Amino acid sequence: MEANGEILRLRTALRDLLAVSTLPVAWVGRQPRDIASALADVLIGSLRLDFAFVRLCDPTRSAVVEVTRGDGWKGFPDWLQRHLAVVRWLSRREIISDIGGGEPRRGVVVPIGVNGEGGLVAAACNRSDFPAEIDLLLLSVAANHAATAFQNALAEQDLRQVRSELETKVAERTARHRESSAAPGDHRAADDSRCLAGRHCPVRQGPGHPALQPGFRAHSRMESR
């Protein structure tokens, strides 16, 4: 029976690990907050957690997204604030044997990136063996996948913004070019084009026109005969 139980746990672990490994494909083209929300939902379902907290951030862009699922660790914000006041940053994962709140629960906090610069993932569960090694593996893999997808989503947002600004500039320059092409000084060129097409062309009498020279005598049709 014990061997069968171990086999079942291994199968469950492989199934959950496979589900986590497919997350990056599902996150392509998603918004940053959607990625954090999806990660929290997957952790709650796969690890059967009572609480999940996801923070994804990019200090270079001052972008931060936070999502919470479940109410099994209501005091987590206070715990995090007190902990960071002491250690300043999360350099390694933290396992809390009893998170308080009445019912016995164990918690874990996994930083993302160096000193948690990419964010963190926190989880709580009433299982006595939580977090097991497979729990820690799934949390770390899922958190790293989410951090990468989060950075890609921010890069796509930047690219869309640059593309939109470029399209706006092109549209403005095109409009100015059309306005300059339709200026009044271009009507003479339009008259010349009609003359070349065989249409009536008005005679322009400039200072050098023969009709304005001294001694010029106009001949009528009868005189020319």
Helicity, as a percent range:
40-55%
Count of domains: 1
- Percentage of β-strand residues: 5-15%
* Element-level helix/strand string: HHHEEHEEEHHH
Q: How confident overall, as mean pLDDT?
A: 81
Give the structural class.
Answer: alpha+beta
H/I helix tally: 7
Spatially, the strands of the biggest sheet line up as 2-1-5-4-3
Rg, nearest Å: 38 Å
Distance between the termini: 130 Å
CATH architecture assignment:
2-Layer Sandwich
Broad CATH class: Alpha Beta
- Sketch the major β-sheet: 5 strands, antiparallel
Under CATH, the homologous superfamily reads GAF domain
Description:
The protein is an alpha+beta fold and about 220 residues long. The protein has a single domain (about 1-160), classed as GAF domain (Beta-Lactamase, 2-Layer Sandwich). Helices cover about 50% and strands about 15% of the residues. It has seven helices and five strands. It has helices at about 1-20, 25, 30-45, 75-85, 135-180, 185-195, 220-225; strands spanning about 50-60, 65-70, 95, 105-110, 120-125. It has a five-stranded antiparallel beta sheet with strand order 2-1-5-4-3. A hairpin with a 4-residue loop joins strand 1 (about 50-60) and strand 2 (about 65-70). The longest helix is centred in the last third of the chain and has 49 residues, at about 135-180. It is elongated, with a radius of gyration of 38 Å. The chain starts with a helix and ends with a helix. The model is unreliable at about 220-225 (pLDDT under 50).
